[in-house]
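ok trying again, last paste got cut off:
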Amino acid sequence: MAQKCVVVARVNPSNREEPAKYYALAKSNRNVTMDEICRRVSERSSYSRGELHGCITEFLIEVVHVLEEGNIAELSTLGNFSLRARTLTPTATAEEFKASNIRDAWVRFYPGEELRNLCKTVSFEIERSKSDSGSSSTEPGTDDGEEGGGGL
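nice, full thing came through this time. structure:
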């Protein structure tokens, strides 16, 4: 199934005088909840929805603990999660830097082989509104190397 995209105009924030350029913006169909994912997996496996839900809940709690310990959570071919620090105030020397110079932390996700392959092979379908120059409502997209073309 093709990934739906809409086309949006964006102005260059560093030069607002330049005319806007158009970019692809991936459009999600809907949110799929953990309950629905558990139901779908239980339909093709011997695990019950409750067992899957409990296991996934415990797994997610453990991923948070792994990150709190300063480790990287490797999730097989899906990818890795790691905690990163965001600097509030940089200093001129390493000796001047203190923990108070750190604003907060953020979680970085590095996609694994499975997701990188998905990004290389996904096809796109451009969804156009009726006001877009009378074109058809959808047309197959092409990956011309521009934004939206497959890298995570």
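cool. The helical segments are 34-43, 49-68, 113-121. The longest strand covers residues 102-111.
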